[in-house]
Amino acid sequence: MKKLDIAEQLSANAYPGRGIIIGRSECGKYAVTAYFIMGRSENSRNRVFVEEGKGIRTEAFDPSKLTDPHLIIYSPVRVLGNKLIVTNGDQTDTIYELMDKQYTFEQALRTREFEDDAPNYTPRISGILRFGEEGFNYAMSIIKSANGNPDSCQRFTFSYNNPLAGEGHFIHTYMGDGNPLPSFEGEPELVGIKGSIDEFTDMVWNNLNEDNKVSLFVRFVNIEDGSEETRIVNKNK
Q1: What are the chain's domains?
Q2: pLDDT tens, position by position, 41-62
Q3: Cα separation of 126 and 138, whole Å?
Q4: pLDDT of residue 133
C-alpha cells in the first residue's frame, strides 16, 4: 500500500467528515492519535471539544443555538485502564462499558450499527490503542451501510501490531462532499506521521477545509512510561 501524505489527503478533500488517525511518531517514542470533526450545518458547527477526565467530550459552543444533540454531543475519547478509545459517536461508551465487562473491541461493536441519519447513514468509525510491557498496538473499525442501503450493516475491523515508526493509519467517515454523503471505502489509509505534537497538530488543523472544520484533538503517549501530551484546537472561541 502506498504511504500517503496526510496534509495532501486533507487539503484535497473539502469534507472528509470526522476522522481518526492512529500511528507511531517518527522517533518511535510516542503512540499518536488524532480525532477531528467537521460540519456543514449550523448545528454541527456549533461545537467545541472540552476535556473530561482523561478524555474529551463535545459541547455546544452556544447552547441557545443547539437544535438537536442527537449524534453530535458525545464523548469521542475515553481511557479504560491501559486502553485509549477514540470514536466518532456514542459507541465510545459502548466500547468502554462492554470492554470493562471483558468483551473484545470487536464484540462490543457488533452491538452497534451505522448512524440513523438517512440518507447519509454515516459510518461509525472507531479506534483503540492498547499499551503494555511490549509497547503498543492498535485497531480500527468501520460500521457502514451497504453502499447506502440501510437494509444491510457491514462491519470491518483492522488490527496493527508493532506499529512502525513514522507510520499510521487514517480513516474518515466520507470520501468527500455530496448529497447524500458518500461513505468511506476500503481499508484505513496508510499515512506518514511526522514532527512533534505541535507540528503534527498544526499540520492537520491547517489542512482541514477552513469553512467546514470544527475541532481537533491530538494526543502523544510516551510508549515507555505512559506520560502524555494533549492538544485541543477549536474553531469556535
Answers
A1: 6-234 (3.60.20.20)
A2: 999 999 999 999 999 999 999 9
A3: 11
A4: 87
